[in-house]
């Protein structure tokens, strides 16, 4: 018997909104890379995210290590997009303004 050595495709797919997910799960590449950078082993990652397969986590980490510059650029872009969404939500739903309005309503009810 001979061993066939073939390159396998990384278990990553890009959703319609541009998010890279691992395997057939909702776990993002961002999540796996972040936990890996924090020092988690592949087994710990699978323990934290049980929908992941161990082989998929190994392959995802291998993909990250082999394409570090591209993945880091993608992660940076995702961080910028997340910050823009936070800023937009903060502008639309000012938490301090909401707190002030709620306190004013509470004060009105206590007076009545």
Can you give me a brief rundown of this structure?
InterPro entries: DUF433, Homeodomain-like_sf, WH-like_DNA-bd_sf. By secondary structure, the chain is mostly helical.
Essential attributes:
single chain, 112 residues, mainly alpha, two-stranded antiparallel sheet, 2 strands, 63% helix, elongated
Describe the structure.
By secondary structure, the chain is mostly helical. The chain is 63% helix and 5% strand. The protein contains 5 helices and 2 strands; from the N terminus they run ββααααα. It comes from Floridaenema evergladense BLCC-F167.
Q: Determine the number of helices (DSSP H or I, runs of at least 4 residues).
A: 5
Strand order of the largest sheet: 1-2
| Bulk shape | elongated
Strand content: 5-15%
Number of strands: 2
Order of helices and strands: EEHHHHH
> What is the end-to-end distance?
87 Å
Radius of gyration: 22 Å
Topology readout:
Layout: E1 12-14, E2 20-22, H1 29-37, H2 42-48, H3 54-66, H4 68-92, H5 95-111
Antiparallel strand pairs: 1-2
Helix pairs in contact: 1-3, 2-3
């Amino acid at each position: 018997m001979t061993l066939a050595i073939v390159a396998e495709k990384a278990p990553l797919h890009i959703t319609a909104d541009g998010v890279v997910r691992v395997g057939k799960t909702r776990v993002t590449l961002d999540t796996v890379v972040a936990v890996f950078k924090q020092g988690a082993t592949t087994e710990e990652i699978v323990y934290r995210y049980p929908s992941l397969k161990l082989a998929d986590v190994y392959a995802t980490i291998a993909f990250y290590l082999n394409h570090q510059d591209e993945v880091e650029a993608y992660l940076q872009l995702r961080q910028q997009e997340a910050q823009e969404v936070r800023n937009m939500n903060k502008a639309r739903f000012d938490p301090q303004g909401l707190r002030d309005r709620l306190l004013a309503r509470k004060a009105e009810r206590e007076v009545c």
